Amino acid sequence: MIRIGRTVTIGLVTAMLAAVATSANAKDAVKVGFIGPLTGGVSVNGLGGRNSADLAVRLRNADPKAKYHYELTVLDDECKPNVAVQVATKMAADKEIIAAATHYCSAAAIAAVDVYHKFGFPVIVWGAVLPDITYRHKYPEVHRVNGTMINQNDTNAALISQLGFKTVAVIHDTTDYGKGHNKYFSEALAKIGKAKIVATFGVTADQQDFTAELTKIKALNPDVIYFGGLTPIGVRIRSQMDKLGIKAVFDGTSGIVSDAYIQGLGPLAEGTLAFREGAPTAKLPGGKFFMEKYNAQKYDNPPEAYGAFAYAAMNLILDTIEKVGPDRKKVVAALGNVRDRDSIVGKISFDDHGQNTVAVITKYVVQDGKFVEWDDSEYASGKRKLPGQK
Amino acid sequence: MDAGLFAQFVMNGLMLGMMYALVAVGFTLFFGVLDVIQFSHGDVLTVGAFSALATYVGLNALGLASPWLDLVIILVLAMAAMALLGMLIARYLVMPLRSAPPLNTLLITLMLGTVLRESVRLFYPQGANPKPFPALLPRGAVALGDFNLRFDNVLMLAAGVLVIVGLQFLLNRTKLGLAIRAVAQDEETARTMGINFTAIVLITFAIGSGLAAFAGVMNGLYYNEINFGLGLYLGVIGFAAAIIGGLGSIYGAILGGFLFAGLQTIGTVMLPFASAYKDVFAFAVVIAIIAWRPTGLIREKISERV
Description:
By secondary structure, chain A is of the alpha/beta class. Chain A has helices at about 1-25, 45-60, 80-95, 105-120, 130-135, 150-160, 175-190, 210-220, 230-245, 260-265, 285-295, 305-325, 330-335; strands spanning about 30-35, 70-75, 95-100, 125, 140-145, 165-175, 195-205, 225-230, 250, 275, 360-365, 370-375. Chain A has two domains: about 30-145 and about 280-360, Response regulator (Rossmann fold, 3-Layer(aba) Sandwich), CATH 3.40.50; about 150-275 and about 365-375, 3-Layer(aba) Sandwich (Rossmann fold). Chain A is built from 13 helices and twelve strands. In chain A, helix 6 (about 150-160) crosses helix 7 (about 175-190) and helix 9 (about 230-245) packs parallel to helix 10. The longest helix of chain A is centred in the N-terminal third of the chain and has 22 residues, at about 1-25. Chain A is elongated and about 70 Å long. Chain A starts with a helix and ends in a 17-residue tail after the last strand. In chain B, about 75% of the residues lie in helices and about 5% in strands. Chain B has a single domain (about 10-290), classed as Orthogonal Bundle (ABC transporter involved in vitamin B12 uptake, BtuC). Chain B is mostly helical. Chain B has helices at about 5-35, 40-60, 65-95, 100-125, 150-175, 175-185, 185-190, 195-225, 230-245, 250-270, 280-290; strands at about 130, 140-145, 145-150, 225. The interface of A and B includes residues 216, 218 and 260 of A.
């Protein structure tokens, strides 16, 4: 009796499995994830990234050749380390989600990498630039499509030195992002040896008042104020510089390249320098394709600086799942072998730390209310001059 | 140190101190009449600043573009709205809890603060981003060596002083002030003397919250930028300032506000380590002062030890 019962059960289960397989013949659903700052001061970048990842998923689902139907799970890290750990755990613990494109903020990303490693959850970082995210450990699960702040600051220091500026005051926020920028910028500037740093100020990431720091800087009268941090306090510092009558060049990082920086400052943004990994979306190999597809979807927000990277990260995940199937272990193994892969942000080659080694850095200056590529700007052609430029 | 720079540091400190003092005065007023700590006070300031900004956007849409008129309208509207909000808080949250343990009032106002803050973030259009605040005051400045004397700073300081002097006059020279002081000193006796206790409490909350709105607008005009989190920080500092000054004492709150701003400036200028530690330094000094004088620098005449 018992034996018969078991056989029947097995038979039933097999039949059911077969039924599931046939009905899913249309397409198996596979979940992938996206994490970024959807609220808070840098939410524009997070929303742009989310839309771009969503675009990659939609285009793939529209492709009849795709083996699976993809569903995107989106979580908000609020650009905060504690929240990032929570949402990373939530996503990694959901075994149905195979892989994710994660984090715009370095502070959030570096806090979450341990979680991804613990759960064996493959991720591709799409915006955070802190080198430690890939280089502190050797986690096979963690990859990154964008370059790091090391390359960015080398380019920054080179431009400052080349323009003949001699003295620099540094303000950085005391998150991992700001501290990393301070470190790599100071090293790069010292290596070139033409300009020197006269003072360094670490400030909290939500500080309101910078008049005391800026007054101290004013006394030192530097040619340049370097700022390692994000848009909200970048806006405050630039505006308070003006109130104190400081004429130095404001030299920022990728953290301020956003429309919110220009909207928050208006004409005061003019002449601000900034640097970013990669190239402007329009100049990327697949930039035109990306913008056309993006605009066709009529999202509420523009893709912002890192949208194309979020798209590339998500697309790489989808390619990998198509190739090896929805299995976390296989995806991790396959991502470890990505070399010279074409994408809309150029070639992608992961080194043994999962870091994309192809680093294109673009120089920007704000001209007439827009971030313009330095080489195309009137500042580079000599038509306009930065404050104190010879 | 160069005289111009010194003057600049003093000016920066005075502006900060004025904002802290205005917040601290609110804490001290509320504590005076009801013996409660109103922890959502800082967030009332945020709501005040944002309602001023919303009014400005509305005025611009209507085509009114005279800076002075705009300024007067947004200031009056923001202060009136926050005075009303303050009265509602007093009437429906604080007063019903008078017989409950003081901890409940503290908790409920703390939670209300979160509600106000998150509401601004969620319901103001793109409220999570820093918002540019219009510069409605004359933008001119005189450079005296390293000292950049800005007219708008002078005007704001003067306005702040006027408000504080006005408050002093109200409290010490008018019948209303007498009633507020009477309630602060002894509720029972004040009631037997025919003072309408509820009305006085509501008026006091209206005054304190109106001052918060004033500080919020001042904050916006000074930095030309506001964000949903600004009141949280100002609230904590204002509360600390009220405590070191001596809760219940107006002069103490003002003294505490300027003292805290001074400590922060000294923390940045004089100390050798990173300026990120200026708050650590300022709050450490506050702890030391409270340990030294538990009832604050200026004691209430009749001190109730808690």
